[in-house]
């Protein structure tokens, strides 16, 4: 998927659920729960070995759902994620060789930054959108606003420590496209197959986004 379409879809969603899935068979019920809650988007992290299988299962069942592969650290993971059908890739940090590898293959990758040097590297590499991770412990909205002064061309997807209490503060910042977070898709809820609770939490989260942004999801 191209970066403009990713920006458009994530901006509309306002939040991107960051998911750690331990069993690929939970992928489709989880995707169904997100869609039922009004959020057809997910970041499936490569923190478990079944990530690529989970991505493939979701994209087969719900081809229109926006699925990012998260915690992509190696070139091999980038290839696996795209082959599984991921729409784009997200890294916790910024690694020049991984970004160049993805750019050569036409994969969209959104790397994490927290400092001016990392933001500058992202700009030098021609990136428009970066993750800001870990957001809350790295200065939150104030740090993003400070980075946005010299790097006004960059747009941010903060993740880490964001929840229903501070979402408004982040989404009110004009350089922030959407926020990543796990508060509505906690690992224990997935492991317990408590998909109805996930749908309820996702509904609360999407209603909050609608209230903050005045958008119809
Ligand atoms: O693995 C990654 O690449 C990550 O993005 C790390 C965390 O899973 C997210 O930062 C979610 O953070 P919380 O919403 O605070 O739970």
UniProtKB/TrEMBL annotation:
SUPFAM superfamilies hit by this protein: Aldolase
CDD domains noted in UniProt: KDPG_aldolase
Pathway: Carbohydrate acid metabolism; 2-dehydro-3-deoxy-D-gluconate degradation; D-glyceraldehyde 3-phosphate and pyruvate from 2-dehydro-3-deoxy-D-gluconate: step 2/2
Record keyword Secreted present: no
Catalytic activity from the UniProt record: 2-dehydro-3-deoxy-6-phospho-D-gluconate = D-glyceraldehyde 3-phosphate + pyruvate
Entries under InterPro entries matching the protein: Aldlse_KDPG_KHG, Aldolase_TIM, KDPG/KHG_AS_1, KDPG/KHG_AS_2
Molecular function via GO: 2-dehydro-3-deoxy-phosphogluconate aldolase activity
Entry keyword Phosphoprotein: no
Entry keyword set: Carbohydrate metabolism, Lyase, Schiff base
Its EC number(s): 4.1.2.14
Family: Belongs to the KHG/KDPG aldolase family.
Subunit structure, as described in the record: Homotrimer.
NCBIfam families, sorted: eda, PRK05718.1
Protein name per the record: 2-dehydro-3-deoxy-phosphogluconate aldolase
Species assigned in the record: Breznakia blatticola
Lineage: Bacteria, Bacillati, Bacillota, Erysipelotrichia, Erysipelotrichales
């Amino acid at each position: 998927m191209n970066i403009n379409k990713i920006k458009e879809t994530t901006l509309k969603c306002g939040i991107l659920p960051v998911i750690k899935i331990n069993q690929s068979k939970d992928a489709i019920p989880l995707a169904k729960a997100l869609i039922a809650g009004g959020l057809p988007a997910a970041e499936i992290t490569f923190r478990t070995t079944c990530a690529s299988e989970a991505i493939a299962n979701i994209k087969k069942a719900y081809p229109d759902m926006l699925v990012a592969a998260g915690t992509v650290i190696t070139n091999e993971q980038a290839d696996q994620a795209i082959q599984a059908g991921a729409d784009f890739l997200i890294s916790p940090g910024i690694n020049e060789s991984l970004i160049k590898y993805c750019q050569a293959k036409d994969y969209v990758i959104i790397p994490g930054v927290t400092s001016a040097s990392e933001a500058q590297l992202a700009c030098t590499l021609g990136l428009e959108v970066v993750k800001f991770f870990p957001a809350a412990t790295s200065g939150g909205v104030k740090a993003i606003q400070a980075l946005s002064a010299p790097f006004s061309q960059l747009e941010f997807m903060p993740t880490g420590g964001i929840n229903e209490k501070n979402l408004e503060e982040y989404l009110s910042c004009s350089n922030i496209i959407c926020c990543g977070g796990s508060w509505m898709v906690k690992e224990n809820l997935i492991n317990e197959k408590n998909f109805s609770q996930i749908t309820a939490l996702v509904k609360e989260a999407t209603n909050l986004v609608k209230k903050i942004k005045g958008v119809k999801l």
